[in-house]
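Quick one:
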Amino acid sequence: MIKKKNRGLYRLVLIIQLLSIIVIAVALYYIYIWYVDNKNTDKILEDIFNNTDISSEDVSINDEETSLLNIDFDSLTSLNSDTIGWIRVWGTDINYPVVQTNDNSFYLTHSFDKSYNKAGWIFADYTNSNLKDNQLDKNTVIYGHNRQNRSMFGTLSNTLKEEWRQTAKNRYINFSTLDESMLWEVFSTYTINSEDYYIKTKFSSDEEYEKFIKTITNRSIYNFNVNVTTQDKILTLSTCTNIGEGRTVVHAKLIK
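Output:
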């Protein structure tokens, strides 16, 4: 009887060891894939900066100094015809060309060169008007993954920190299309459970748009004291929080 118990215990130990090896092997595989994806993304971004003419000019907004970016998009559009603009969020590591295609799934798992990569890329909502033609809807929505290595929208959560808000320049976002360099002023930043409301891009009336503006302004964890009206156009940035179904969201209005 004792021998049978020992054999049973031995088999159980072997099974546990085998399962542990499998778990470790799978974990190492995903770590390796994560590492390779990050290295490929870094190489693509390095090539972009090496081959793209990017300059900036200082501007003064409400007696506060910030910058406008001027991007030569010729090299970017030759690499990827889906290129529709560039985004720079001060006080974060977000500084990328933006793409747009006919769905919101492709660039979740593909890089700027359209190679498969779980890091994805920064992309505009497909329901927005064709941004290549510089057509801005009331709400232009841009997405990116919250990567643990701080790439893509991995540092968008900086906008939730008091020290980020206290730096005046951080409150201005550069988002430019192929034809126009634009400056946007942040008026709301918050986290929320996954929903479709804040990513609505078009509105049937000024009344509906006004209600939308009030809702997203009141959600902000800070009062930015920025007046937003139905005449304004909005930029919305969205990423996951990596906690449940949460989202980190930033809203800014076009000012220049």
